[in-house]
Amino acid sequence: MQMGLDFNLVEDLVAGVDEVGRGPLCGAVVTAAVILDPQRPILGLNDSKKLTEARREKLFDEICEKALSFCIARAEVEEIDELNILHATMLAMQRAVEGLSVTPKLALIDGNRCPKLSVPAAPVVKGDSQVPAIAAASILAKVTRDREMAAFELMYPGYGIGGHKGYPTPVHLEALARLGPTPIHRRSFAPVRAAYAVRGVLSNGFAEV
C-alpha cells in the first residue's frame, strides 16, 4: 500500500529502496533496501551517481557494517525479458524489502511509483539525493552491479562492459553489431533484437532457416 506523508518527519525503521540498471542492454537490474541506524550515522550519503567510485566503495562497506538491516536483490535478464523492465524492477524491489531481517514501518521508494509491498510505502522523486536511506540503497545497488559488470568484462571481452556498464553507448552498440549478443543481453531491448535479426536468429534463440 501507498500513503502520502512528509518523509522528513519519519525516521524510525524507515527502509530506503532504490534500483540500478533499468537502462542497460545487458545484465540484471539490481535493487537494495536499507534501514539505517540513527545511533550509527554515516556521513557523506548521497545519490550514488554523484559520488566517485572510490567513495562509493568505502561507503558500501560502512553501510553494510552500520545499517540496522539491508538486503540486495535483483531481477535477472530472463525475468526482464518476460515481464518487461518496469515490472522486473518492481519485483526486484519487492525482493529487497522482503529480504530485510527487520520489518520496516515504512518503505520510501526512489522514483514516482511503488511496488506492491506488505508495509506502507511512498514514492520520493529524486529520493536518492534527499533521503539518506535511499541514498544508501542506491550505493549498495550500484556498487553491486558495477562489480558484476567488471566480472562480465572478463567473461565477454570486446564489448567494453566494464566501462559502460551495459548502457547503450556507441562503443557498446558497435560491439553488439560486430560481435552479436551474449547470453547476458536483454532480448526484449530494441538494439539487442536488432542484433539478433541481423544474424538471422529468432527471439527464441533458434536460427532462421
CATH topology of the largest domain: Nucleotidyltransferase, domain 5
Distance between the termini: 50 Å
Gyration radius, in Å: 18 Å
Order of helices and strands: EEHEHHEEHHHH
Percent range for helical residues?
25-40%
CATH architectural category of the largest domain: 2-Layer Sandwich
Structural class: alpha/beta
What's the CATH H-level homologous superfamily of the largest domain?
Answer: Ribonuclease H-like superfamily/Ribonuclease H
Average pLDDT level:
91
Residue share in β-strands: 5-15%
User: How many strand segments?
Assistant: 5
Low-confidence stretches: 1-10, 202-209
Quickly count the helices. Answer: 7
CATH class term of the largest domain: Alpha Beta
Report strand order across the widest sheet.
3-2-1-4-5
Overview of this structure, please?
- The chain is an alpha/beta fold and 209 residues long.
- It has two domains: 7-153, Ribonuclease H-like superfamily/Ribonuclease H (Nucleotidyltransferase, domain 5, 2-Layer Sandwich); 156-198, no CATH class.
- The chain is built from seven helices and five strands.
- It has helices at residues 53-66, 77-83, 85-98, 132-155, 161-164, 170-179, 190-198, and strands at 14-20, 29-35, 69-75, 106-110, 121-124.
- Strands 3-2-1-4-5 form a five-stranded mixed sheet.
- Helix 1 (53-66) crosses helix 4 (132-155) and helix 2 crosses helix 3 (85-98).
- The N and C termini lie far apart (50 Å).
